[in-house]
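Supplementary Text 2. Reproducibility record for the structural model of the 115-residue chain.

All settings were left at their defaults, and a single model was retained for analysis rather than an ensemble. We include the record here because the model underlies the residue-level annotations in Supplementary Table 4.
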Amino acid sequence: MEGESIFDEDVDRRSGNLLRAWREHRGMTQEQLASAVNTTGSVISLLEAGDRKLSPKWLYRLAPALDTTPGYLLDHHPEDLPDDIIETWSSIPQAQRKHAREVLQTFRHRTGTED
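Retained model, structure tokens:
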């Protein structure tokens, strides 16, 4: 449709399964997640089912509540990722994550696996 980006279509196509998977992975109910992002359980249900658009705005609200990133909500099922890395990242205080990311990126540069 006119005015919609490929990103929006991609978000809509994959919105249901991974949001629910991440919520369940974190041991949260729909109501708990809703409370964390200041909405209702009904809205979370609609987002998980794909009946409501999982827009970039929603991704940026939901990701921190699920201790992940918007990109991971879209592209990675939590069961496909090493738990130790996810848990370690989740335990880093938000104020220190930028520094932690920079430190990790130095390893990528040293090993020659830069994107």
